[in-house]
Amino acid sequence: MANEEVKKQEFKKSNNRNKRNNRREKGPFVDTQVVSINRVTKVTKGGRTLRFAVVCAVGNKKGLVGIGTGKAGEVQDAIRKAENAAKNNLIKIPLVDNRTLPHDVTGKCGRAKVLLKSAKPGTGVIAGGTARIILELAGVKDVVSKSLGSNTKINVAKATISALKDLRTKEHIAELRGKKVEEL
After folding, report:
1. Phi, psi (deg, nearest 5) at residue 79
2. The 112-118 sheet, strands edge to edge
3. SS3 for 33?
4. Exposed, middle or buried: residue 91 (CB in 10 Å: 0-12, 13-18, 19+)?
5. Are 55 and 132 in contact (CB under 8 A)?
6. Domains (ranges, CATH) in the chain?
7. How many CA atoms lie within 13 A of 151 on its CB side?
8. What are the mean pLDDT values of the chain's consecutive 10-residue runs (184 residues total)?
9. Is the pTM above the cut of 0.70?
10. Residue 47 zone, left/alpha/beta (φ > 0; ψ -120 to 50; rest)
11. Other CB atoms within 10 Å distance of the CB of residue 72
């Protein structure tokens, strides 16, 4: 009898461990792209210590996207840390016809401001460097973007993610108001 209880407890432990490991893997990712790599130095009494700060974006090109940062003494370690952080910061965005945004939206981070406008079919992704990377990884095919204010890459990336977080669908707004989509 005691032997069966021990086996049950071991099974529960291994099952919990599997659940934790599965939680880290947030689905299949088509692409990972490095947004920026910066050399940063810390001046101490003993001299300068050189490290690398990396901003990385991941996405599945089907409405799932995230960004993350990592810092390490080696570039590859920093990229790996940033990629893991990006996988943990994923957001799901609503796409209209699997190609464009439901409405125009603005995102801010620091002094960086990013304006995203939905576009007609065939327009393509009209966006500058950092915003383009994130929008393409998210699976947006038709969008017009304008970066306003600061052009710091990490802030533009965060502002783009902030704008994508603010997207709402008609169904979501109707649900919040307690109405049907036809009543809006």
Report:
1. -65, -45
2. 105-109, 112-118, 143-149, 125-126
3. strand
4. middle
5. no
6. 31-91 (3.30.160.20), 94-172 (3.30.230.10)
7. 5
8. 59 53 53 95 94 96 94 96 94 93 95 96 94 95 95 95 93 88 82
9. yes
10. left
11. 16
